[in-house]
Amino acid sequence: AIEEKMYRPNFHFTPKKGWMNDPNGMFYANGYYHLFYQYYPDKSVWGPMHWGHATSRDLIKWDEQPIAIYPDKDKYIFSGSAVVDVNNTSGLQIGNNAPIIAIYTLHDMTKEREGKIDVERQDIAYSNDNGFTWQKFEEGNPVVKNPGIRDFRDPKVTWDETHKQWIMVLAAQDRAQFYKSANLKNWEFLSEFGKDIGAHGGVWECPDFFPIKVEGTKETKWILIQNLNPGGPNGGSGVQYFVGDFDGKTFKLDPDFAKRVDKEKAVWADYGKDNYAGVTWNNVPSADGRRLFIGWMSNWEYAQQVPTNSWRSSTTIARELKLVKKGNYYNLISNPVRELDYYITETNRTKTLKGKENYTLVENEKVDLTQAIVSLEFKNLKQENYTFELSNSDGESLKFGLNNKENYLFVDRSKAGKNDFSDKFAATTSKAFLDGNQKEAVFKIILDKTSIEIFYNNGEKVMTEIFFLEKPFTALSVSSKEKMEINNVLIQKLDVLKKS
Ligand code: FRU
User: Fold this and answer.
1) Which of 103, 58, 446 is nearest to 290 (CA)?
2) Does residue 283 line the site of ligand 1, with CB under 6 A?
């Protein structure tokens, strides 16, 4: 009961009970956004993997559905994707709805125990009721056999409109592999990417591959999202990405982006510790054209030890991705989906705060900081630290902000409640390095009971972190050694639970 009250997020998705990791197979069909996820219903630690299921009309309010895909004995259903097969290329349609095809890794635990290499292969399942019930394609599985690679998983399929083909990207240990198909059943190997590029601190997992417009231009680029664990930007799991071009066969890194990778070693979609295995939705209404992303809001370093018992893990807020180019600098920006704004019940505005080294933004529980959005803009920044502090009467506090001397954003959760369940959880302050000294800075933060999501400069840099408090935060302040100038302070209350 206490963990329900303190730790069950107000508006981030969690399964009612059991263990969840990666988001899987997201698509939109017939008025619903579908979210599947790595799920073990019987315990709140990792185990025999199912595909759990939830649906939403608006990407914010989720309804848990019955389990979508069950494992057979020792044949775990690992991560993967799903596509709405609008033209019935698979021939698996029965009835009037376009079939939906799930493509996932079948992980064989018997073979794993025997020390075999060919433990993982790619299978499909299909749905003829818009994604609510599923059949495994027993007669045709596997659709991609194991080629002799131990880590060979997490297929993500997308329709390549330019070359009129289905493309599958999968993680093959230290690289991504690309396959093509006309019918989602027969797959042909095309090429691979990444063996010596980007971060390789751990095994590559959960890739995603999709075209995206460069904002404000007619140009299209391809994004390869490539999760890896460990080796993330602040330890453990992380989500890196690459920007390039795809000729229907091969993915080539864009020369400008290659320079960025050279300089930064790896480029990340999130610099906090708790955004992993994130991928994007298939079949989002095309009038809308958004590229929508959700991640698992945890980290393999401690995901199985966090202090919730009846369930473990939640997802991040759903985010819209955009590709922005400034000069020769490509950046995949992410922001919370606009649907979140629908749940704002009250907005407190302050136009300017000027001349002091310390401002209280929220005090005395005036705003419920377990469901709130706070945003503001700093002007005329000095070479100083700008530190936000969330706090409560128990002396718990979360510090985050901008170090404008050494040019990084930071989150320090070492005093933000329980952390003794893992020595990795709060050992270091997470950092996101910036290009240089900042003159202005825009912060938008999304707060739930156990998480903070920081969107810096309209999503140019993102940091997502979780925490476990004894009491909710009741105050928020910001301070610096220099006098500050802050514009457009918005403190917004959210009410996702009650408002329907
Ligand atoms: C990533 C991952 C995937 C795998 C799944 C198993 O978190 O390790 O590579 O498919 O989890 O649950």
Assistant:
1) 58
2) no
Q: Specify the pTM.
A: 0.98
Cα separation, 463 vs 441, whole angstroms: 15
Measured CA to CA, the distance from residue 195 to residue 193 in angstroms comes to 6
- Alpha-carbon gap, residue 354 to 351, rounded angstroms: 10
Which residue's CA lies nearest to atom 8 of ligand 1?
A: 205
Domain 343-494 matching CATH 2.60.120.560: the answer reads yes
Upstream peptide bond of 230 is cis (omega within 30 degrees of 0): yes
Q: Which residue's CA is the nearest one to ligand 1's atom 6?
A: 78
Give the torsion sign (CA, 406, 331, 280, 139).
Answer: negative
**Mind listing the pLDDT tens digit for each residue in 204-260?**
999 999 999 999 999 999 999 999 999 999 999 999 999 999 999 999 999 999 999
Ramachandran sector of residue 380 (left: φ over 0; alpha: ψ -120 to 50; beta: rest): left
Q: Which residue, chain included where needed, has tokens 């610099």? A: 271
Q: Do domains 2-336 and 343-494 have the same CATH topology?
A: no
The answer to whether the bond into 142 is cis (omega within 30° of 0) is yes
Residue 208 CA, ligand 1 centroid: distance in Å: 14
> Which fold would CATH assign to domain 2-336?
Tachylectin-2; Chain A (2.115.10)
Q: What is the pLDDT of residues 25-71, one digit of tens each?
A: 999 999 999 999 999 999 999 999 999 999 999 999 999 999 999 99
> Which ligand 1 atom lies nearest to the CA of residue 171?
9
| Residue extents of the structural domains in the chain | 2-336, 343-494
Task: Give yes or no: 247 in active site.
Answer: no
- CA distances for 328 relative to 255, 257, 258, 259, 469, angstroms: 9, 8, 11, 9, 43
